[in-house]
Structures are given as C-alpha cells and as structure tokens.
Design brief:
234 residues, alpha/beta, Glycerol-3-phosphate (1)-acyltransferase, seven-stranded mixed sheet, two-stranded parallel ribbon, 9 helices, Plipid/glycerol_acylTrfase
Length: 234
C-alpha cells in the first residue's frame, strides 16, 4: 500500500513537472522477473525510471540515503522506503557487493523487477564507463532473468551532483529489447562469461544513450579527476 501511494504521488508529480519522454516501454514485461540495467548520470535516475513504469522496480540504494539528516534527507528516506528500495551499507565494499547480489536474486525470485547500475557509480562527466561484472552478471546468471538495457538521457543536466534544487527540463528514457542469457544460467563463477555478458549489456546501453564509451571504471575516473583537481590547487 505504501508503495502504491508513493508511486502515485511522486510518480505523477515528476511526470507532470518534468514530462519525461520514453521509448521502448513495451520491452518491459507486464509480469515476471527482469533486470533493468541502466547507465547512471544523476541521483534522480532512481526517481525517473520507476515513475514511468507501471510495475515496481527495486534498486539497491546506499544506506546513506536512508540516514541523511535534514529535510532533504527525510524526504529522500521516505521516498526510497515508500517505493521499496533496499538499503545496503557500503562501508565494507566486499560485504556490500554480496548483500546487493543476494538482494537482487531475492527480488527476481519473487518475480519482480530489479534495477541496477552496472557502472557502479554515477558518471563523473556524462560519458559511459566500463561495467563492473560482479553485480549484474552474477545476478543474471544466478537467476536466468532477462536483462533489459536502459538509457537515461539528460538527467545529469536536471540535477548535477551537489545541486539540491533540480532544473525543470525534459529528461529521456530509452528502453532496449531484453537480452537473454539463460543459456549461461548457473555459470556465475566463470569470469570470462561474466565479463562478456557485462560488455554486451554496456554496448546496448551505449547504442541507446549515444554516450561516448570509456574503457575504464567510473570509480577510477573519479579518482583521476580528484587527483587532477588537487594538483591544480597546489
């Protein structure tokens, strides 16, 4: 009931205020498990994608979203709880990754939609970065659920990192055809297959988004940018 109320309230408000355009929504099944694998440009990605879908989408969200102080923190926590998002403590990287994978498998085993950002973090500059194989591939191979590539477009312009008040403009969402990896079901221990699966999904996201692809992890790119900024200040 809480999910339905939050979905109706916030989802309708977002659609009315921002009027997001959507292509390929017919590729999301009306029932049954599926993984929505999306690029990640903005904090608001986790708001817009669920808002345009009729079905509930469960993302694994970092625990800070549920515990941040202030009015924004309380509103954020209420939204994520209301739409059924799952908090994961990221203070221990390995433990967090395992918890996220277990949560994703449980969501899919219930026949629901599981959302994931294969890049692992938001893009620091609007480009598409290499997907991390651990989360997406392990969940897909453990469950046999289809993977649906998703491209969020222009959401980084609405709410760049550090900006509290969003800019009113139309974001876009392109949803690709489901990718079937069921032939590899149960082979989540094979690193070659995990890497190949992830790269195939990222290629489809790149085609949908039109982003420039960078063959490195976004976390490494963020470190490089931070180090460069530090050197400029010295």
């Amino acid at each position: 009931m809480l999910y339905g109320a939050m979905k109706l309230s916030i989802g309708n408000s977002l659609k009315l205020a921002f009027r997001p355009w959507v292509e390929g929504i017919e590729h999301v099944p009306a029932e049954g498990p599926a993984i929505l694998a999306s690029n990640h440009l903005s904090f608001s990605d986790s708001f817009f994608l669920p808002a345009v879908l009729d079905r509930k989408v469960t993302f694994v969200a970092k625990a800070e979203y549920f515990t941040s102080p202030g009015v924004k923190g309380k509103l954020t926590a209420a939204f994520f709880k209301g739409v059924g998002q799952l908090p994961v403590d990221r203070s221990g990287a390995r433990g967090a990754a395992e918890a996220a994978i277990r949560s994703g498998i449980e969501v899919l085993e219930r026949g629901e939609l599981f959302g994931i950002y294969p890049e692992g973090t938001r893009s620091p500059d609007g480009r598409l970065y290499r997907g991390k194989p651990g989360g997406l591939a392990r969940v897909a191979l453990a469950t046999g659920a289809p993977v649906i590539p998703v491209a969020m477009i222009d959401t980084e312009k609405i709410q760049p990192p550090g900006k509290v008040v969003p800019k009113l403009m139309r974001p876009g969402i392109r949803i690709g055809k489901p990718l079937d990896f069921s032939r590899y079901h149960g082979m989540d221990g094979d690193r070659f297959i995990m890497r190949s699966l992830t790269d195939e999904v990222m290629y489809e996201i790149m085609k949908l988004s039109g982003q420039e692809y960078v063959d490195m992890y976004a976390t490494a790119a963020k470190r490089q940018l931070a180090e460069a900024a530090k050197r400029r200040e010295e």
